[in-house]
Design a protein that fits this description.
Elements: E1 2-6, H1 11-22, E2 26-30, H2 41-47, E3 53-56, H3 63-75, E4 81-85, H4 105-121, E5 128-134, H5 152-163, E6 170-173
Parallel strand pairs: 1-2, 1-3, 3-4, 4-5, 5-6
Helix pairs in contact: 1-5, 2-3, 3-4
Amino acid sequence: MKIAITGHTRGLGLACANLFSSLGHTIIGLSRSNGYDISNTSYIIDSIRDCDVFINNAYHDKNQSILLNSLFLYWAESNKIIINIGSTVTVYPRTERERDHEPWDYRDDKQHLERVFRYLSKLPHTCQLKLISPGAINTKMIEHLTCTKMPAEDVAQIIYDTMSNRLIKELTLYE
């Protein structure tokens, strides 16, 4: 299987890339470090035309939602899989960041991804759409937070397991 992953060089994306390649799958990594910007939707889609699975992992503003919508239009009538990485932060009340006291745009953008996913899920399609929303994962992005964190490798394994189960559409993971 050929699997494309945004944000494959760190955190959950790296854990997915390592696991999937160790299982014999071909990985197409899409990160800024190798010239991919998720805001350049057409370039990403052109680069993954022959992939079987797309893991929409990298976060940058509402670009995950835009990428999901664009790829869905392209893959809707295929047998391919689009896995979107959301977050349990979508159910938290509006808060301020601990470090810089700016509004938490991350939460709003992940809520937008959730809404786009649920809208597209109601449209006719043959591709598999999935939304996996983990809680805190032990990555550099949230190393400053004091909370229980799931190992990225465990979350990657769950993501992998959902690929073979058409019945799983949405999954929320808590430690």
